[in-house]
Design a protein that fits this description.
270 residues; 2 domains; six-stranded mixed beta sheet; two-stranded antiparallel ribbon; 6 helices; flat
Length: 270
């Protein structure tokens, strides 16, 4: 459990802050040891200029900002993805309980851990940047846990499109939706607001017209009423979120809600 030779690791005799009351030592599936300290992190002060940004979370684009920026969470590189596929095929052929199967599972775990580390690093840098640059940060009020719930169903009532739902759940987890919002709640405490998610992708951020036909494709938005666009659909949604309101299922305007509730951290794979 030593830290010698690990870049960025704390030395074993590093001082611990007084605010830390407890810690937990764990070992992940790739064989790495971790020490997690229970402490409330300090929030980051905003610029104080009244700036507002809308954050739209997606799958093709991890984060779209109302400023027009498109951010993508890093994952495995092409060569690593190819190696992971080969390892998964080898695992499927390996005999249960064999040393070959154990080695293959360990190699897969190390690749998965590398992917998670990159995603966490990206989330930390992205959330710090947003907390520093903007006074108010608005995100969609998405229930990520419910969205990623299994669609398999029961034997009596089997689910529909289970394979497609499984792929969507996997992609949502890879984008780090839950962890992104949890860290924004920590770093921009009192400055994060939730906006109703309904129709933000169908509403024109210029004239307010709502229609499914406005969304020409996954990436393209063009209003059928005012002919605004074409422009990126995720950026349009982010601008609606930045406005602090969205058209609800009843047709009225929902208003944003301040995020003063206690943040809930998602699982490591989120």
């Amino acid at each position: 459990m030593g830290t010698q030779g690990r870049p960025g690791a704390l030395p074993l005799d590093a001082p611990i802050a007084d605010a830390v009351k407890s810690y937990r030592v764990t070992r992940d599936r790739s064989g790495r040891w971790h020490i997690a300290f229970a402490a409330i992190p300090d929030s980051i002060p905003g610029p104080g200029d009244g700036s507002v940004v809308g954050v739209d979370r997606g799958v093709a684009v991890s984060v779209a900002l109302s400023s027009g920026e498109l951010l993508r969470a890093p994952g495995l590189r092409a060569g690593e993805t190819k190696r992971l596929r080969r390892l998964q095929q080898r695992l499927a052929r390996a005999q249960r309980g064999s040393a070959r199967r154990a080695r293959t599972k360990l190699a897969i775990s190390k690749l998965r851990a590398r992917e998670i580390d990159r995603r966490r690093d990206w989330v930390e840098k992205t959330t710090t940047d947003l907390a520093v640059r903007f006074d108010t940060i608005r995100v969609e009020d998405l229930k990520v846990g419910a969205m990623t719930r299994s669609a398999r169903g029961t034997r009596e009532h089997p689910g529909n499109h289970v394979a497609q739902k499984r792929r969507l759940n996997r992609e949502i987890s890879r984008q780090g939706w839950g962890l992104l919002v949890a860290r924004l709640q920590h770093k921009a405490r009192g400055r994060l607001e939730f906006v109703p998610a309904a129709c933000t992708s169908q509403r024109c951020s210029y004239c307010g017209h709502v229609a499914p036909e406005n969304r020409k494709s996954q990436a393209v938005f063009q209003c059928t009423a005012c002919s605004a666009g074409p422009y990126n659909a995720d950026v349009n949604a982010a601008r609606n979120i930045a406005a602090g309101r969205a058209v609800t299922a009843r047709g009225d305007l929902g208003t944003s809600q301040s995020a003063n509730r206690e943040p809930q951290l998602s699982s490591p794979a989120a």
